[in-house]
Amino acid sequence: MAPSATAHPLRGREQGNLPEDVSSFVGRSFEVKETRRLLSESRLVTLTGLGGVGKTRLALRVARDAQRTFTDGTWFVDLSELHDADQLAQAVASTLGLQDWSVRSPQSVLIDHLADRRTLLLLDNCEHLVGPVAALVQTLLRACLGLSVLATSREPLGIGGETVVRVPPLTVSAEPARAPAPADVPGGDAVALFEQRARAAVPGFRLTAENSATVARICARLEGLPLPIELAAARLRALSVDQLLERLDDRLRLLTRGDRTTPSRQQTLRLCIDWSYDLCTDREQRLWARLSVFAGSVALDAIEGVVADDGVDGDLLDVVTSLVDKSILIREEVDAAVRYRMLDTLREYGRQRLRDEGDPIALRRRHRDWYEDLVLRAQRDWIGSRQVERVSKLESEQSNLREAMEFCLGDPPSAASAMRIAAGLYEFWIVRGRFKEGRNWLDRALADGGPPTVERGEAMCVDSVLAALQQDTPAATVSAEEARQVAGRRLGPGRADTGDAAAVARR
Ligand SMILES: Nc1ncnc2c1ncn2[C@@H]1O[C@H](COP(=O)(O)OP(=O)(O)OP(=O)(O)O)[C@@H](O)[C@H]1O
Ligand SMILES: [Mg+2]
Q1: In the chain, where the domains are located
Q2: Per-residue pLDDT tens for 284-306?
Q3: Whose CA is nearest to atom 8 of ligand 1?
Q4: pLDDT single digits (tens) 215-250
Q5: Which run of H or E residues covers position 189?
Q6: Measuring from each residue's beta carbon to the nearest atom of ligand 1, which residues come in under 6 Å?
Q7: What are the beta bridge partners of residue 176?
Q8: So what's the architecture of 280-358 in CATH?
Q9: Rounded Cα gap, residues 113 and 252, in angstroms
Protein backbone atom coordinates (compact mmCIF):
# COMPACT_ATOMS: atom_id res chain seq x y z
CA MET A 1 0.00 0.00 0.00
CA ALA A 2 1.32 3.43 -0.85
CA PRO A 3 1.88 5.68 2.16
CA SER A 4 -0.22 8.79 2.45
CA ALA A 5 1.10 11.83 0.68
CA THR A 6 1.64 14.12 3.63
CA ALA A 7 4.87 15.56 4.92
CA HIS A 8 5.78 15.05 8.52
CA PRO A 9 9.04 15.29 10.39
CA LEU A 10 10.83 12.17 11.55
CA ARG A 11 10.19 11.53 15.21
CA GLY A 12 12.52 13.31 17.64
CA ARG A 13 13.63 15.92 15.11
CA GLU A 14 11.07 18.61 15.78
CA GLN A 15 13.29 21.00 17.69
CA GLY A 16 16.20 21.36 15.36
CA ASN A 17 19.64 20.03 14.66
CA LEU A 18 22.19 22.64 15.72
CA PRO A 19 25.56 20.88 15.89
CA GLU A 20 27.63 20.87 19.06
CA ASP A 21 30.61 23.22 19.21
CA VAL A 22 33.76 21.39 18.18
CA SER A 23 36.01 23.90 19.95
CA SER A 24 35.56 26.75 22.43
CA PHE A 25 33.80 29.89 21.22
CA VAL A 26 35.56 33.16 21.85
CA GLY A 27 34.37 36.77 22.16
CA ARG A 28 31.92 38.30 19.67
CA SER A 29 29.59 39.55 22.39
CA PHE A 30 28.77 42.70 20.41
CA GLU A 31 28.18 40.85 17.12
CA VAL A 32 26.04 38.20 18.81
CA LYS A 33 23.84 40.80 20.47
CA GLU A 34 23.60 42.95 17.38
CA THR A 35 22.76 40.04 15.07
CA ARG A 36 20.08 38.83 17.48
CA ARG A 37 18.59 42.29 17.57
CA LEU A 38 18.57 42.48 13.78
CA LEU A 39 17.02 39.05 13.59
CA SER A 40 14.17 40.25 15.76
CA GLU A 41 13.57 43.12 13.33
CA SER A 42 14.25 41.47 10.00
CA ARG A 43 13.26 38.00 8.87
CA LEU A 44 16.35 37.63 6.71
CA VAL A 45 19.78 38.39 8.09
CA THR A 46 22.85 37.48 6.05
CA LEU A 47 26.29 37.30 7.61
CA THR A 48 28.92 38.06 4.98
CA GLY A 49 32.71 38.21 5.02
CA LEU A 50 35.93 36.59 3.96
CA GLY A 51 36.37 32.80 4.13
CA GLY A 52 37.45 31.79 7.64
CA VAL A 53 36.45 35.07 9.29
CA GLY A 54 33.99 33.28 11.56
CA LYS A 55 30.57 33.57 9.88
CA THR A 56 29.48 30.02 10.62
CA ARG A 57 30.59 30.11 14.25
CA LEU A 58 28.84 33.43 14.82
CA ALA A 59 25.66 32.25 13.11
CA LEU A 60 25.58 29.08 15.21
CA ARG A 61 26.01 31.06 18.40
CA VAL A 62 23.21 33.45 17.46
CA ALA A 63 20.95 30.56 16.45
CA ARG A 64 21.60 28.79 19.72
CA ASP A 65 20.78 31.94 21.70
CA ALA A 66 17.61 32.41 19.67
CA GLN A 67 16.34 28.87 20.16
CA ARG A 68 13.72 29.88 22.70
CA THR A 69 12.18 32.40 20.34
CA PHE A 70 11.81 29.85 17.58
CA THR A 71 9.50 27.46 19.32
CA ASP A 72 9.13 25.16 16.31
CA GLY A 73 12.81 24.57 15.81
CA THR A 74 16.13 25.98 14.74
CA TRP A 75 17.68 24.21 11.78
CA PHE A 76 21.21 24.25 10.44
CA VAL A 77 21.37 23.52 6.71
CA ASP A 78 24.89 23.09 5.37
CA LEU A 79 24.84 24.04 1.70
CA SER A 80 28.57 23.92 1.10
CA GLU A 81 28.44 20.49 -0.53
CA LEU A 82 25.38 21.11 -2.61
CA HIS A 83 26.21 21.84 -6.24
CA ASP A 84 22.92 21.22 -7.96
CA ALA A 85 20.49 24.10 -7.53
CA ASP A 86 17.60 21.75 -8.38
CA GLN A 87 18.28 19.86 -5.16
CA LEU A 88 18.19 22.94 -2.94
CA ALA A 89 14.62 22.78 -1.63
CA GLN A 90 14.98 19.03 -1.26
CA ALA A 91 18.15 19.48 0.78
CA VAL A 92 16.36 21.87 3.14
CA ALA A 93 13.38 19.53 3.44
CA SER A 94 15.65 16.55 4.14
CA THR A 95 17.49 18.46 6.85
CA LEU A 96 14.16 19.23 8.48
CA GLY A 97 13.52 15.49 8.39
CA LEU A 98 10.44 16.02 6.22
CA GLN A 99 9.22 12.85 4.66
CA ASP A 100 6.91 13.42 1.80
CA TRP A 101 5.88 10.66 -0.52
CA SER A 102 3.85 12.65 -2.97
CA VAL A 103 4.87 14.18 -6.27
CA ARG A 104 4.49 17.68 -4.84
CA SER A 105 7.55 19.87 -5.29
CA PRO A 106 9.88 20.02 -2.26
CA GLN A 107 9.23 23.76 -2.19
CA SER A 108 5.51 23.32 -1.63
CA VAL A 109 6.21 20.65 0.96
CA LEU A 110 8.40 23.15 2.80
CA ILE A 111 5.80 25.89 2.54
CA ASP A 112 3.10 23.61 3.92
CA HIS A 113 5.28 22.55 6.78
CA LEU A 114 6.62 25.98 7.70
CA ALA A 115 3.48 28.04 7.07
CA ASP A 116 2.17 27.98 10.63
CA ARG A 117 5.39 27.40 12.43
CA ARG A 118 7.83 29.65 14.23
CA THR A 119 11.10 28.40 12.78
CA LEU A 120 14.63 29.63 12.16
CA LEU A 121 16.57 28.28 9.19
CA LEU A 122 20.31 28.78 9.29
CA LEU A 123 21.45 28.44 5.69
CA ASP A 124 25.21 28.04 5.85
CA ASN A 125 27.55 28.75 2.91
CA CYS A 126 25.20 30.13 0.29
CA GLU A 127 27.84 31.85 -1.86
CA HIS A 128 27.99 29.29 -4.67
CA LEU A 129 24.19 29.19 -5.03
CA VAL A 130 23.28 32.81 -4.33
CA GLY A 131 20.61 33.10 -7.05
CA PRO A 132 18.69 29.89 -6.27
CA VAL A 133 18.97 30.42 -2.50
CA ALA A 134 17.66 33.98 -2.89
CA ALA A 135 14.70 32.73 -4.93
CA LEU A 136 13.82 29.98 -2.46
CA VAL A 137 14.22 32.22 0.58
CA GLN A 138 12.04 34.90 -0.97
CA THR A 139 9.28 32.41 -1.70
CA LEU A 140 9.45 30.83 1.73
CA LEU A 141 9.47 34.14 3.59
CA ARG A 142 6.45 35.36 1.64
CA ALA A 143 4.45 32.24 2.32
CA CYS A 144 5.54 31.46 5.88
CA LEU A 145 5.12 34.37 8.21
CA GLY A 146 6.62 32.68 11.26
CA LEU A 147 9.82 31.83 9.42
CA SER A 148 13.13 33.65 9.83
CA VAL A 149 16.33 32.96 7.92
CA LEU A 150 19.87 33.51 9.06
CA ALA A 151 22.25 32.98 6.14
CA THR A 152 26.02 32.93 5.86
CA SER A 153 27.55 33.76 2.53
CA ARG A 154 30.68 35.39 1.21
CA GLU A 155 28.30 37.73 -0.66
CA PRO A 156 24.78 39.00 0.13
CA LEU A 157 21.72 37.24 -1.32
CA GLY A 158 20.56 40.56 -2.76
CA ILE A 159 16.82 40.37 -2.10
CA GLY A 160 14.44 42.94 -0.66
CA GLY A 161 14.16 42.92 3.11
CA GLU A 162 17.61 41.40 3.58
CA THR A 163 19.71 42.81 6.42
CA VAL A 164 23.39 42.32 5.72
CA VAL A 165 25.92 42.09 8.54
CA ARG A 166 29.57 42.17 7.55
CA VAL A 167 31.40 39.96 10.00
CA PRO A 168 34.59 41.71 11.03
CA PRO A 169 37.75 39.89 12.09
CA LEU A 170 38.22 39.45 15.83
CA THR A 171 39.32 42.52 17.73
CA VAL A 172 43.01 43.06 18.33
CA SER A 173 43.75 45.92 20.65
CA ALA A 174 46.54 48.31 19.71
CA GLU A 175 47.89 47.87 23.21
CA PRO A 176 49.85 44.70 23.73
CA ALA A 177 48.07 42.28 26.03
CA ARG A 178 48.94 42.59 29.66
CA ALA A 179 49.07 39.21 31.20
CA PRO A 180 47.73 37.30 32.89
CA ALA A 181 44.08 38.27 32.62
CA PRO A 182 41.95 35.18 32.62
CA ALA A 183 38.50 36.67 32.30
CA ASP A 184 38.81 39.49 29.84
CA VAL A 185 42.04 39.31 27.91
CA PRO A 186 43.09 42.89 27.19
CA GLY A 187 44.69 41.98 23.86
CA GLY A 188 41.22 41.52 22.42
CA ASP A 189 39.27 38.48 21.25
CA ALA A 190 41.98 37.57 18.76
CA VAL A 191 44.51 37.09 21.55
CA ALA A 192 41.97 35.11 23.56
CA LEU A 193 41.44 32.80 20.57
CA PHE A 194 45.17 32.41 20.07
CA GLU A 195 45.61 31.56 23.74
CA GLN A 196 42.88 28.93 23.68
CA ARG A 197 44.18 27.23 20.56
CA ALA A 198 47.78 27.46 21.76
CA ARG A 199 46.74 25.70 24.94
CA ALA A 200 45.18 22.93 22.90
CA ALA A 201 48.47 22.55 21.00
CA VAL A 202 50.80 22.90 24.00
CA PRO A 203 48.86 22.07 27.16
CA GLY A 204 50.91 24.26 29.55
CA PHE A 205 50.69 27.39 27.39
CA ARG A 206 49.66 30.60 29.19
CA LEU A 207 49.78 34.26 28.43
CA THR A 208 52.55 35.73 30.56
CA ALA A 209 54.15 39.11 31.03
CA GLU A 210 56.94 37.90 28.74
CA ASN A 211 54.98 36.51 25.82
CA SER A 212 51.80 38.56 25.73
CA ALA A 213 53.17 41.46 23.71
CA THR A 214 54.47 39.04 21.08
CA VAL A 215 51.16 37.20 20.96
CA ALA A 216 49.31 40.47 20.46
CA ARG A 217 51.70 41.32 17.64
CA ILE A 218 51.15 37.96 15.99
CA CYS A 219 47.40 38.49 16.14
CA ALA A 220 47.75 41.99 14.74
CA ARG A 221 49.89 40.67 11.88
CA LEU A 222 47.16 38.12 11.20
CA GLU A 223 44.61 40.95 11.32
CA GLY A 224 42.48 39.15 13.84
CA LEU A 225 41.44 36.52 11.28
CA PRO A 226 40.34 33.42 13.20
CA LEU A 227 41.43 30.76 10.72
CA PRO A 228 44.99 32.10 10.34
CA ILE A 229 45.18 32.49 14.13
CA GLU A 230 44.21 28.86 14.62
CA LEU A 231 46.74 27.70 12.03
CA ALA A 232 49.47 29.82 13.62
CA ALA A 233 48.71 28.70 17.17
CA ALA A 234 49.05 25.08 16.07
CA ARG A 235 52.65 25.88 15.10
CA LEU A 236 53.59 26.35 18.75
CA ARG A 237 54.20 22.63 19.00
CA ALA A 238 57.42 23.31 17.12
CA LEU A 239 58.16 27.01 17.59
CA SER A 240 58.29 29.57 20.39
CA VAL A 241 56.04 32.63 20.07
CA ASP A 242 59.09 34.76 19.20
CA GLN A 243 60.10 32.41 16.40
CA LEU A 244 56.53 32.36 15.18
CA LEU A 245 56.37 36.16 14.96
CA GLU A 246 59.75 36.34 13.28
CA ARG A 247 58.83 33.84 10.59
CA LEU A 248 55.47 35.43 10.06
CA ASP A 249 57.13 38.82 9.60
CA ASP A 250 59.51 37.32 7.04
CA ARG A 251 56.65 35.80 5.11
CA LEU A 252 54.57 38.96 5.10
CA ARG A 253 57.54 41.02 3.98
CA LEU A 254 58.07 38.60 1.14
CA LEU A 255 54.42 38.90 0.21
CA THR A 256 54.53 42.67 -0.12
CA ARG A 257 58.03 42.50 -1.63
CA GLY A 258 59.39 44.81 1.02
CA ASP A 259 57.26 47.83 0.06
CA ARG A 260 55.24 49.56 2.68
CA THR A 261 51.79 48.47 1.65
CA THR A 262 50.17 46.01 4.00
CA PRO A 263 48.75 42.86 2.47
CA SER A 264 44.99 42.60 2.00
CA ARG A 265 43.09 40.29 4.31
CA GLN A 266 42.62 37.89 1.43
CA GLN A 267 46.39 37.84 0.91
CA THR A 268 47.00 37.31 4.62
CA LEU A 269 44.58 34.41 4.62
CA ARG A 270 46.18 32.86 1.56
CA LEU A 271 49.63 33.36 2.98
CA CYS A 272 48.73 31.60 6.20
CA ILE A 273 47.31 28.65 4.34
CA ASP A 274 50.35 28.51 2.04
CA TRP A 275 52.54 28.65 5.07
CA SER A 276 50.71 25.78 6.76
CA TYR A 277 50.94 23.82 3.54
CA ASP A 278 54.66 24.48 3.10
CA LEU A 279 55.32 23.29 6.63
CA CYS A 280 53.56 20.00 6.05
CA THR A 281 55.63 16.98 5.12
CA ASP A 282 55.24 15.58 1.61
CA ARG A 283 52.87 12.91 2.87
CA GLU A 284 50.77 15.44 4.76
CA GLN A 285 50.59 17.67 1.70
CA ARG A 286 49.56 14.77 -0.50
CA LEU A 287 46.90 13.74 1.97
CA TRP A 288 45.56 17.30 2.39
CA ALA A 289 45.15 17.62 -1.37
CA ARG A 290 43.62 14.16 -1.73
CA LEU A 291 41.18 14.61 1.13
CA SER A 292 39.60 17.39 -0.89
CA VAL A 293 37.82 14.75 -3.01
CA PHE A 294 35.60 13.97 -0.04
CA ALA A 295 32.54 16.03 0.74
CA GLY A 296 31.27 16.81 4.24
CA SER A 297 33.07 14.60 6.71
CA VAL A 298 34.86 11.31 6.17
CA ALA A 299 35.64 8.18 8.17
CA LEU A 300 39.11 6.70 8.40
CA ASP A 301 38.26 3.54 6.49
CA ALA A 302 37.11 5.64 3.52
CA ILE A 303 40.34 7.63 3.61
CA GLU A 304 42.26 4.38 3.63
CA GLY A 305 40.16 2.92 0.85
CA VAL A 306 40.40 5.92 -1.45
CA VAL A 307 43.80 7.50 -0.95
CA ALA A 308 46.03 4.82 0.60
CA ASP A 309 47.72 3.79 -2.64
CA ASP A 310 48.09 7.29 -3.92
CA GLY A 311 51.51 8.22 -2.64
CA VAL A 312 50.38 8.59 0.97
CA ASP A 313 51.94 5.37 2.10
CA GLY A 314 52.90 4.26 5.59
CA ASP A 315 50.56 4.53 8.53
CA LEU A 316 47.77 6.72 7.27
CA LEU A 317 46.38 7.29 10.75
CA ASP A 318 49.65 9.00 11.71
CA VAL A 319 49.35 11.42 8.81
CA VAL A 320 45.67 12.06 9.58
CA THR A 321 46.58 12.72 13.21
CA SER A 322 49.26 15.23 12.28
CA LEU A 323 46.79 17.08 10.04
CA VAL A 324 44.45 17.26 13.04
CA ASP A 325 47.33 18.59 15.16
CA LYS A 326 47.98 21.26 12.56
CA SER A 327 44.32 22.35 12.56
CA ILE A 328 43.87 21.29 8.94
CA LEU A 329 41.40 18.55 9.86
CA ILE A 330 38.74 18.67 12.54
CA ARG A 331 38.03 15.47 14.43
CA GLU A 332 34.35 14.89 15.17
CA GLU A 333 32.61 12.13 17.03
CA VAL A 334 29.15 11.24 15.83
CA ASP A 335 27.36 8.35 17.55
CA ALA A 336 30.68 7.01 18.84
CA ALA A 337 32.17 6.98 15.33
CA VAL A 338 35.12 9.26 14.58
CA ARG A 339 34.96 11.31 11.40
CA TYR A 340 37.18 14.01 9.96
CA ARG A 341 36.09 17.28 8.43
CA MET A 342 37.96 20.05 6.66
CA LEU A 343 36.95 23.71 6.72
CA ASP A 344 35.75 24.84 3.33
CA THR A 345 38.54 27.32 2.77
CA LEU A 346 41.12 24.60 3.40
CA ARG A 347 39.32 22.11 1.18
CA GLU A 348 39.20 24.59 -1.70
CA TYR A 349 42.91 25.07 -1.26
CA GLY A 350 43.46 21.30 -1.31
CA ARG A 351 41.38 21.02 -4.49
CA GLN A 352 43.50 23.65 -6.16
CA ARG A 353 46.68 21.80 -5.19
CA LEU A 354 45.25 18.58 -6.52
CA ARG A 355 44.40 20.23 -9.84
CA ASP A 356 47.92 21.71 -10.00
CA GLU A 357 49.28 18.17 -9.86
CA GLY A 358 47.21 17.17 -12.89
CA ASP A 359 43.76 15.80 -13.57
CA PRO A 360 42.54 14.03 -10.40
CA ILE A 361 40.21 11.75 -12.37
CA ALA A 362 41.78 8.48 -11.14
CA LEU A 363 41.30 9.59 -7.54
CA ARG A 364 37.73 10.64 -8.15
CA ARG A 365 37.03 7.25 -9.69
CA ARG A 366 38.41 5.55 -6.61
CA HIS A 367 36.12 7.77 -4.52
CA ARG A 368 33.24 6.64 -6.75
CA ASP A 369 34.22 2.96 -6.39
CA TRP A 370 34.50 3.16 -2.63
CA TYR A 371 31.03 4.64 -2.20
CA GLU A 372 29.51 2.37 -4.80
CA ASP A 373 30.89 -0.59 -2.91
CA LEU A 374 29.54 0.81 0.37
CA VAL A 375 26.07 1.05 -1.14
CA LEU A 376 26.17 -2.40 -2.70
CA ARG A 377 27.40 -3.99 0.56
CA ALA A 378 24.66 -2.24 2.54
CA GLN A 379 22.12 -3.48 0.04
CA ARG A 380 23.40 -7.05 0.08
CA ASP A 381 23.25 -7.20 3.89
CA TRP A 382 20.12 -5.12 4.21
CA ILE A 383 18.07 -7.69 6.08
CA GLY A 384 19.61 -8.30 9.46
CA SER A 385 20.11 -7.05 12.99
CA ARG A 386 22.39 -4.21 11.86
CA GLN A 387 19.93 -2.56 9.53
CA VAL A 388 19.47 0.56 11.67
CA GLU A 389 23.23 0.99 11.83
CA ARG A 390 23.44 0.69 8.03
CA VAL A 391 20.76 3.31 7.51
CA SER A 392 22.54 5.77 9.77
CA LYS A 393 25.87 5.03 8.06
CA LEU A 394 24.31 5.79 4.66
CA GLU A 395 22.79 8.90 6.18
CA SER A 396 26.16 10.14 7.42
CA GLU A 397 27.64 9.45 3.98
CA GLN A 398 25.01 11.43 2.07
CA SER A 399 27.39 14.21 1.06
CA ASN A 400 29.91 11.72 -0.26
CA LEU A 401 27.26 9.66 -2.03
CA ARG A 402 25.89 12.76 -3.72
CA GLU A 403 29.41 13.84 -4.64
CA ALA A 404 30.07 10.40 -6.17
CA MET A 405 26.81 10.40 -8.16
CA GLU A 406 27.40 13.95 -9.35
CA PHE A 407 30.87 12.93 -10.53
CA CYS A 408 29.49 9.88 -12.37
CA LEU A 409 26.95 12.00 -14.22
CA GLY A 410 29.73 14.11 -15.69
CA ASP A 411 32.04 11.19 -16.49
CA PRO A 412 30.68 9.01 -19.34
CA PRO A 413 32.63 5.85 -18.36
CA SER A 414 30.95 6.09 -14.93
CA ALA A 415 27.39 6.04 -16.27
CA ALA A 416 26.76 2.48 -15.05
CA SER A 417 28.08 3.37 -11.59
CA ALA A 418 25.63 6.24 -11.31
CA MET A 419 22.80 3.77 -12.00
CA ARG A 420 24.17 1.18 -9.58
CA ILE A 421 24.54 3.70 -6.74
CA ALA A 422 21.17 5.36 -7.26
CA ALA A 423 19.40 2.00 -7.64
CA GLY A 424 21.43 0.38 -4.84
CA LEU A 425 20.05 3.00 -2.46
CA TYR A 426 16.56 1.67 -3.19
CA GLU A 427 15.75 0.57 0.37
CA PHE A 428 17.38 3.69 1.77
CA TRP A 429 15.25 6.01 -0.36
CA ILE A 430 12.21 4.14 0.88
CA VAL A 431 12.97 3.98 4.62
CA ARG A 432 13.96 7.64 4.63
CA GLY A 433 10.97 8.64 2.51
CA ARG A 434 13.29 10.23 -0.07
CA PHE A 435 11.36 9.12 -3.11
CA LYS A 436 11.81 12.44 -4.86
CA GLU A 437 15.54 12.55 -4.38
CA GLY A 438 15.91 8.93 -5.44
CA ARG A 439 13.88 9.51 -8.59
CA ASN A 440 15.83 12.64 -9.35
CA TRP A 441 19.17 10.79 -9.32
CA LEU A 442 17.74 7.85 -11.24
CA ASP A 443 16.17 10.06 -13.88
CA ARG A 444 19.41 11.94 -14.36
CA ALA A 445 21.40 8.71 -14.58
CA LEU A 446 18.96 7.30 -17.13
CA ALA A 447 18.54 10.50 -19.11
CA ASP A 448 20.92 10.00 -21.99
CA GLY A 449 19.71 6.68 -23.37
CA GLY A 450 22.49 4.13 -23.61
CA PRO A 451 22.59 0.37 -24.18
CA PRO A 452 20.08 -2.00 -22.52
CA THR A 453 22.36 -3.05 -19.69
CA VAL A 454 21.41 -4.85 -16.48
CA GLU A 455 22.09 -1.60 -14.61
CA ARG A 456 19.69 0.29 -16.83
CA GLY A 457 16.97 -2.28 -16.37
CA GLU A 458 17.40 -2.31 -12.61
CA ALA A 459 17.54 1.45 -12.33
CA MET A 460 14.30 1.65 -14.32
CA CYS A 461 12.64 -0.87 -12.04
CA VAL A 462 13.61 1.11 -8.96
CA ASP A 463 12.50 4.33 -10.64
CA SER A 464 9.19 2.71 -11.40
CA VAL A 465 8.65 1.50 -7.81
CA LEU A 466 9.49 4.91 -6.36
CA ALA A 467 7.11 6.59 -8.81
CA ALA A 468 4.39 4.07 -7.91
CA LEU A 469 4.91 4.75 -4.20
CA GLN A 470 4.39 8.41 -4.95
CA GLN A 471 1.16 7.42 -6.64
CA ASP A 472 2.56 8.75 -9.89
CA THR A 473 1.09 5.88 -11.90
CA PRO A 474 1.76 7.29 -15.40
CA ALA A 475 5.50 7.67 -14.72
CA ALA A 476 5.61 4.30 -12.94
CA THR A 477 4.01 2.62 -15.93
CA VAL A 478 6.40 4.22 -18.41
CA SER A 479 9.46 3.19 -16.37
CA ALA A 480 8.14 -0.33 -15.87
CA GLU A 481 7.50 -0.67 -19.60
CA GLU A 482 10.98 0.59 -20.40
CA ALA A 483 12.44 -1.81 -17.87
CA ARG A 484 10.53 -4.61 -19.54
CA GLN A 485 11.85 -3.63 -22.95
CA VAL A 486 15.43 -3.52 -21.65
CA ALA A 487 14.98 -6.94 -20.10
CA GLY A 488 13.37 -8.19 -23.31
CA ARG A 489 16.28 -7.05 -25.41
CA ARG A 490 18.74 -8.77 -23.07
CA LEU A 491 16.83 -11.99 -22.52
CA GLY A 492 14.97 -12.43 -25.75
CA PRO A 493 11.23 -12.15 -26.41
CA GLY A 494 8.82 -13.52 -23.86
CA ARG A 495 11.36 -13.88 -21.07
CA ALA A 496 11.35 -10.42 -19.62
CA ASP A 497 10.26 -10.26 -16.03
CA THR A 498 10.60 -6.95 -14.34
CA GLY A 499 9.03 -8.24 -11.17
CA ASP A 500 7.90 -5.76 -8.58
CA ALA A 501 8.10 -2.71 -10.73
CA ALA A 502 5.68 -3.76 -13.39
CA ALA A 503 3.35 -5.24 -10.82
CA VAL A 504 3.32 -2.13 -8.70
CA ALA A 505 2.89 0.08 -11.73
CA ARG A 506 -0.05 -1.94 -13.01
CA ARG A 507 -1.94 -1.60 -9.75
N1 LIG B 1 34.41 33.44 17.74
C2 LIG B 1 35.14 32.34 17.51
N3 LIG B 1 35.56 31.58 18.55
C4 LIG B 1 36.30 30.47 18.32
N5 LIG B 1 36.69 30.05 17.12
C6 LIG B 1 36.31 30.76 16.05
C7 LIG B 1 35.51 31.93 16.18
N8 LIG B 1 35.27 32.43 14.95
C9 LIG B 1 35.88 31.59 14.09
N10 LIG B 1 36.50 30.59 14.74
C11 LIG B 1 37.24 29.48 14.13
O12 LIG B 1 37.87 29.94 12.93
C13 LIG B 1 37.67 29.01 11.87
C14 LIG B 1 36.88 29.66 10.74
O15 LIG B 1 35.59 30.02 11.21
P16 LIG B 1 34.25 29.75 10.37
O17 LIG B 1 34.25 28.39 9.83
O18 LIG B 1 33.11 30.17 11.22
O19 LIG B 1 34.50 30.78 9.18
P20 LIG B 1 33.54 31.15 7.97
O21 LIG B 1 33.55 32.62 7.86
O22 LIG B 1 32.24 30.47 8.13
O23 LIG B 1 34.37 30.53 6.74
P24 LIG B 1 33.83 30.02 5.30
O25 LIG B 1 33.49 31.24 4.49
O26 LIG B 1 35.02 29.28 4.75
O27 LIG B 1 32.65 29.14 5.56
C28 LIG B 1 36.97 27.80 12.47
O29 LIG B 1 37.90 26.82 12.82
C30 LIG B 1 36.28 28.37 13.69
O31 LIG B 1 36.11 27.40 14.69
MG1 LIG C 1 31.33 28.92 7.05
Answers
A1: 8-166, 189-278, 280-358
A2: 999 999 999 999 899 999 999 99
A3: 54
A4: 999 998 888 999 999 999 988 988 899 999 998 888
A5: helix 189-201
A6: 23, 25-28, 49, 51-57, 125, 152, 154, 193, 226-227, 230, 343-345
A7: none
A8: Orthogonal Bundle (1.10)
A9: 52
